[in-house]
Amino acid sequence: MAVRILSLASLFLFWICAAVLMDDPSVLPQPWALAGPFAASFASGELPYHLAMTLWRVVWAFFLAMSIGIAIGYVMGRFPAIDRWLDPWLVVFLNLPALVLIVLCYLWIGLNDVAAITAVVLNKIPNVATVVREGARALDPQLSAMAQVFRMRTLARLRHVVLPQLAPFIVAAARSGIAVIWKIVLVVEFLGRSNGVGFQIHLYFQQFDVAMVLVYSLSFIAVMLAVEWLFLQPVERSVRRWRSA
Description:
With 245 residues, the protein is mainly α. The chain has one domain (44-244): MetI-like fold, CATH 1.10.3720. Helices cover 86% and strands 0% of the residues. The chain is built from ten helices and no strands. It has helices at residues 2-22, 35-44, 46-78, 80-95, 98-109, 113-137, 141-149, 154-192, 197-206, 210-244. Helix 4 (80-95) crosses helix 6.
């Protein structure tokens, strides 16, 4: 924890030095200059509302992308015939720019949350499927044979044999996924929503208000860091514990 605090402190020190060298608060204000705009936006309820809307989209997109991606990746990793069939699709979607999918979803579905979340999910599913597919390919056949010998039921085998081996891959996909998903959500909101952090950044960008752009950006980064440190990293340590036991 001390190392993380020192690392963040060095980042703020770099920011302060850059602001001094820039010597133009309208381009790069000092960190403490954001306290007033942050307090005013928070007190008005504007900041919590837009943070909540973005977080709601992130949670839905993350849940759907992980669920569908894990299922597709596991099937592709365990069944070579399906893998050969779906691999070209995976390559296409991995290389399809996020902006293209966002624009197409808005054109086809409309400027609504269904289109926004669909675009984010379609962008993230291929990454999750790719990681989980490698985990499914690496499953220990001896453990599977042991489960078969002991006539374990399907659900029991999935819980006690398959999931512990896949867990590190799932967590890796989740950690990279949450970082990518919230960034894409901001782009989705920037382009076609009427609320959320991305929408507010677009609004203040049009007003050339760097301070408020930084307030909204840093506020949501703080939320995502809290998710990473308080949830994802403890889960990762937990799922890796059995390997060292």
